[in-house]
Structures are given as C-alpha cells and as structure tokens.
C-alpha cells in the first residue's frame, strides 16, 4: 500500500520534470539575451505580472468573469445536448424527427458563426453564452446518443425479464451503461468550452481573460499576454482533472478504473 | 390444480401476466403437471421453426432438450418463459397465483450488470418481490448456496466465467421459481468448470424442487442431469427418452454410454 502510494507520487513528479526543465532553460535563455524581450517575456517577468495583476484585483475579476461565462454556456449547451441525446437514444420517434437536422447543423463549425452572432447579440454576454453552448452541445449530444445506443440489448432484455419498470430500467441499466460514453463527451466538451470562450473573448468582449490578453497586446505587455495563455491552459487542465475525478468516482466498476 | 392457458395474443397483455382461466383439463396423469405445451408452432416469416410441439412435464422433473444448432431450442424455451408467443398452440402452466407460477430463464451469457456488485446483481432477481434488508438477506443466502459467499461485494468483472454463471443462477433462483429454463447455460465454460456447475445445478434442483428445462448441445450433460431427454428435429419432438438412472450419477458408466448412444443415433438419423 505505502509502496504503491510512493510510486504514484514519484510518477506524478516525473511528469513535471520536463516542464520545470523547459522553464529553467527559457529563463536562462532570456537572461542571456538569446530570446528578445519583444518576442517572449522571461518566466520571472510573467511571474511579476501575475503578482501585479493579482494585487490589483484585475486578474481575479477577469478569471471570475471568464469562468462564469464558460460554466453558464456549458450548463446551457450541455443540458440541452444531454436531453436530446437521451430523448433520441430512448425514442425512435424523437430520433427520426430530430437527428438528421442536428447532424446537419453539426457540420457547421460553430466558430464560423461569430460574425452572425455579433450581429445578433453585439458583444454582449449573450454572444459568448450562445457560442459556448453551441460548441458544447454536439459532443454531449452525440456521445450521450452513442452511449445509449451502445447499451447491451441483452442486459436490457434481462432487466425486462426480471420485471424492472421503465424507470428502473433507465436508472439501473441504460444510464449506467451509457455513462462511459457520456464521460468521453463531457471531457471533449470541456475542451471545446475553453477554446470557444478564448476565441469569442479575443474577438468580441469588454472583459474576461481574452479581453485582458488583447488589451495587453495593444500596450505591448507581452508578459501579460503570456500570463493569460498560461492561465487558460491551467483552467483547461483543471476542468479536465475535475471530469477525470468524477469519472473515476462513478465508473469504479469499470475494469479500466480498477486498481491493477 | 388450477390450469391457466396462455393464448398467444393475450399473453402480451399486462406485464405478460396470463389471461384467461380455462376449464380444468381432463384427467391429470399420475404426477401433477408443471406445464404442458399443445401444438406449439412458431414461424418467422414463412420459415417454420417449431411445428406442433406437444409436451407434458410433471412438477419437479428435470428435462433436457437436445437438437442440432438452429432447430428451435431457444425459440421453444423463450415461449416457455413467456418472452415470445407461439404462432399457434398453447402453453398451460399449473399452479395458483402468479408467484406460484413464476418462471425464470438463464442464458449462455451471464448478463450481469457490470456496474452492480454481485449481491446487487442477485437482488435483481427479487425485483417487485422483496426489497431492502429482506432482499439483501435472501441474496446473500442464495450466494452462499452457490458457493460465492466470499464474493458478494465484488464487481462482476473480477469473476471467472464459471463464477459469473453461478451469480446468474443465484439471481434466477433467489425468488424460488416454479420453472427454471436454461438455455445452454454452461456452453461457454471449460470442461472441468462445466462438470462442477452440473453438480451444483443438480444439488440445488434437488433442494429447491423446481421444474427444470435445460437446453444443451452436450449429450453427456443431458444424460448426467436429466430425468428425461427430448430430442427436437425439424420442428418436432423426434425422441422422448426417460433416463431412469439413480443419482448421484457417474460419468462414463456403461448405462449412460448406452443412453448417450441412443440419443446420438437419433440425432444423426441412424436410429
Ligand atoms: N427473431 C427471429 N427472427 C427470425 N428468425 C429467427 C428469430 N429467432 C430465431 N430465428 C430462427 O429460428 C431458427 C431457430 O433458432 P433458435 O431457436 O435460436 O435455434 P437453436 O437455439 O436451436 O440453435 C433459426 O434458424 C433462427 O435463424
Ligand atoms: Mg439457441
């Protein structure tokens, strides 16, 4: 037990070795004048920008705004996608009525709608929410549908034979069976969520992390630009780790998540 | 004995609960019947799979059904378990209330829920019958009988094929069914595990006294377990052979060999 724990820690640490070495090399190269100040700020300058923006409250405010946008858009698009995925997975009629249309809309890259969305919503919150929700909708929809369609029909028959009601059949057989696929959709959707928000905030916003980065670009504050990029990366990683944790907790039965 | 007929059309109504009460059947044979099939015919499109099967099975009998692949054994079993209805003919199940007439079916695949612990999987056998602590106690008890008392809190994925099939057996038996239909339940197991499972099945059948209908492609298995072997060929019963051997039976005795030979001859048309 203790040995495996030490092993896990060691393995996690190993993953950080390369980034740490890269940062060190980057700092050294900047100080030696190998990298121009106007191309890349050294890690120490990025750190200083971080401390400065943290103290002024600007950073926390912008992270808060961006996170709120991301999560609200995700909640809207994700729940609609989940609802359609369930409905179309469970009901043939619903699938016949809506699936073709949804698959057609899916072929439009949602970011291509930005000009239209700006015309509709201006650069208000509505524009960002709409884009994030639209981007998140499809991975959740498609994977929920696939998950439900992939549930072993023999298990469903077994549930029926043993007299499960439709409700029991759904909660005890169909939903758990679809869960691994739904998680694939969830993690994919979280990635799309941040990507969409970055693009939307960079093009059309007056607050948030993307806006902060664009402002900094105008004033040639390259340290702040890099800081924003790093924070985006961290937030993305955080969301993914959260989804993985959730996955590990709910899919304990799955051979892939059992201690070897 | 009250007799209830299942007509193909009515059978689908109300959760598969049988519908009409029939007039009592004429003079029952010596032992009370568990079920009887009369002229069961099943067609898929214009293909006739079962062509007028008549079969009376007394309560507590162990019947083995043998036949070549695709001859309609599974179809017959599904009709018996109420999962499909015959194109024509009737199934009559004896007994009183729905609980007393309960039938269960077991398949070649264990069909366990991978996301439910073993004891939870067994509790599925009590859906609509018992819940909570009662269901839990009953399932632990039956798991003990099938020799899995130590695995009740495992996930199905860590069990071997034979153990999974034992869980499926426990799930089928936890509510004490009147009829247990088994569709090649041991077909996917290795030879040694299969013999072990046969012994387990025989022991539990002797304890619980249900009526067993076992579909198998293994002639030795049929002769080892059954009171009676029914051979199906071209949609009809080609041979109905009593196996009057004392239990426990021994594999490879001259008497079993003779009976096996008789069945094989009929299967391959040398009879
Ligand atoms: N739902 C169905 N639709 C059409 N044909 C079927 C269906 N179920 C079974 N059959 C056909 O009926 C025949 C008997 O099948 P089955 O009862 O499964 O045979 P066995 O179990 O004896 O191998 C096979 O030829 C099979 O193709
Ligand atoms: Mg079969």
UniProtKB/TrEMBL annotation, chain A:
GO terms for biological process: alkanesulfonate transmembrane transport. It comes from Ensifer adhaerens. InterPro entries: MetI-like, MetI-like_sf. Its main location: membrane. The keyword Transport applies. GO terms for cellular component: plasma membrane. Probably part of an ABC transporter complex. Probably responsible for the translocation of the substrate across the membrane. Belongs to the binding-protein-dependent transport system permease family. The chain crosses the membrane at residues 63-86, 107-123, 129-148, 169-186, 192-212, 219-239. This is ABC transporter permease. It is found in: Cell membrane.
């Amino acid at each position: 037990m203790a040995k495996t724990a030490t092993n896990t820690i060691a393995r996690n640490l190993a993953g950080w070795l390369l980034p740490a070495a890269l940062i060190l090399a980057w700092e050294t190269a900047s100080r030696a004048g190998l990298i121009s100040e106007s191309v890349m700020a050294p890690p120490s300058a990025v750190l200083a920008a971080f401390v400065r923006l943290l103290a002024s409250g600007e950073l926390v405010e912008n992270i808060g705004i961006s996170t709120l946008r991301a999560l609200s858009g995700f909640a809207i698009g994700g729940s609609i996608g989940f609802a359609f995925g369930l409905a179309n997975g469970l009901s043939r009629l619903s699938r016949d009525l809506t699936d073709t249309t949804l698959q057609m809309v899916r072929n439009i890259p949602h970011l291509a709608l930005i000009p239209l969305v700006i015309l509709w919503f201006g650069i208000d919150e509505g524009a960002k929410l709409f884009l994030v929700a639209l981007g998140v909708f499809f991975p959740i929809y498609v994977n929920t549908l696939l998950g439900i369609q992939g549930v072993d029909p023999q298990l469903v028959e077994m549930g029926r034979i043993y007299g499960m009601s439709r409700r029991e059949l759904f909660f005890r057989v169909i939903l758990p069976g679809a869960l691994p696929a739904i998680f694939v959709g969830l993690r994919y959707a979280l990635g799309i969520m941040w990507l969409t928000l970055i693009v939307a905030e960079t093009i059309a916003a007056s607050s948030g992390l993307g806006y902060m980065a664009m402002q900094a670009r105008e004033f040639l504050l390259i340290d702040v630009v890099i800081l924003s990029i790093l924070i985006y990366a961290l937030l993305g990683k955080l969301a993914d780790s959260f989804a993985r944790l959730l996955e590990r907790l709910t899919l304990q039965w799955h051979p892939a998540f059992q201690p070897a | 004995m009250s007799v209830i007929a299942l007509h193909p059309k009515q059978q689908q109504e109300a959760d598969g609960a049988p519908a009409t009460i029939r007039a009592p059947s004429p003079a029952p044979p010596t032992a009370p019947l568990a079920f009887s099939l009369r002229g069961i015919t099943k067609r898929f499109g214009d293909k006739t799979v079962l062509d007028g099967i008549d079969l009376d099975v007394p309560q507590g009998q162990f019947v083995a059904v043998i036949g070549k692949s695709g001859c309609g054994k599974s179809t017959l079993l599904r009709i018996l378990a109420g999962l499909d209805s015959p194109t024509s003919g009737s199934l009559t199940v004896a007994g009183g209330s729905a609980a007393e007439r309960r039938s269960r079916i077991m398949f070649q695949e264990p069909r366990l829920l991978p996301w439910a612990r073993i004891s939870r999987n067994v509790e599925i056998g009590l859906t609509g019958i018992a819940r909570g602590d009662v269901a839990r106690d009953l399932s632990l008890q039956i798991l003990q009988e099938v020799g899995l008392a130590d695995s009740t809190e495992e996930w199905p994925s860590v069990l071997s094929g034979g153990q999974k099939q034992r869980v499926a057996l426990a799930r089928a038996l936890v509510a004490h069914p009147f009829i247990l239909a088994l569709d090649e339940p041991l077909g996917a197991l290795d030879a040694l595990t299969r013999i072990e499972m046969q012994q387990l099945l025989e022991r539990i059948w002797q304890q619980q006294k249900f009526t067993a209908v076992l579909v198998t492609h293994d002639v030795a298995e049929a002769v080892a377990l059954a009171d009676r072997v029914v051979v199906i060929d071209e949609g009809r019963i080609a041979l109905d052979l009593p196996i009057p051997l004392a239990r426990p039976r021994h594999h490879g005795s001259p008497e079993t060999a003779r009976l096996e030979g008789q069945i094989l001859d009929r299967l391959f048309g040398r009879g």
